[in-house]
Amino acid sequence: MEIDMNLQNLRVFLKVAELEHITRASEELNLSQPAVTKTIQSLEHEIGLELVERQGRRIALTHAGRVLQNYARQIFALEREMEDALTALRDVEGGEVTLAANTTAGVYLLPPIVARFRARYPQVTLNISILNSHEIVEETLNWNLDFGLVEGPPSALPSGLKVEVFAYDELILVVGSAHRWSQLQEVKPADLGEGELLLREQGSGVREVIEKGLARHNVQVRPLLTLTDNEAIKQMVMSGVGAAIVSSLTVQRELAKGDLVHIAVDGLDMRPQLSLIIRVDKQLSRAAQAFCAFLRPALNHEPELQRVPDESK
């Protein structure tokens, strides 16, 4: 069966699919709710399959709807690539880059890189999201990102991604100045197992590295608290609420001021890898390629990061 599908109708469907709500989709698309409903019904009639089913005020995708959603994402990702390529032919200084980074990279590594990139390419539009590593992988695979920056073992990443490890972070144990461990030189891995650590949420690359690192010492982590923000973890620890294993990048100022104390952990050395991830079948625009080219030299400005050695030398 040959399907002559209208791209505008497909665009409306994708918005409905992403929001799982016809009213919200109509508001974002600046269309009436009946017009959106009619578009979905027209698509279903054209395809000969039901795409959505109502669940109260929300809608859910059928299996056919999920298949169409996946292809629609690819189609509009290619459309964006086409626009970027044509823009590059008119003006190599223009274009748009959409990326996401985990909290450590996004808050502590990217700002100076973005500043230097903007100075060189002021006409390029940057769209940057701060997500956890699991979300970045998902968004990259779903064609919503040009590329992502994640932390954790590349071996755990899906095969559909091209992975370039460009640096190693260092995770350290910190406590507040009034914590009972603050005068110790060192603790044992076993001390960190039961209700001592504040950890990031499941899906965080840093949490995965911590859990695997302690598992090698037969320590199963049971967190005192779980938080979704590095800054919240720092503030809790400085207030005397437990201990935390965090990126050394995130606590340099607090260590220098004495608000936090670095405690060694016997036999525990955790240096998670920072990786650039791209879909293997993704063609980067010139603007995205230029941003990627800024990443490796930018590490010269971050002394706390250990760079991947250049094996060609």
TrEMBL record:
GO MF annotations, alphabetized: DNA-binding transcription factor activity; transcription cis-regulatory region binding
Domain of life where this protein originates: Bacteria
SUPFAM superfamilies: Periplasmic binding protein-like II (SSF53850), Winged helix' DNA-binding domain (SSF46785)
Entries under InterPro entries matching the protein: LysR_HTH_N, LysR_subst-bd, WH-like_DNA-bd_sf, WH_DNA-bd_sf
Annotated ranges, domain HTH lysR-type: 5-62
Cited Pfam families: HTH_1, LysR_substrate
CDD domains hit by this protein: PBP2_CysL_like
Stored Gene3D superfamilies: 3.40.190.290, Winged helix-like DNA-binding domain superfamily/Winged helix DNA-binding domain
Keywords: DNA-binding, Transcription, Transcription regulation
Presence of keyword Lipid metabolism: no
Family: Belongs to the LysR transcriptional regulatory family.
Designated name of the protein: LysR family transcriptional regulator
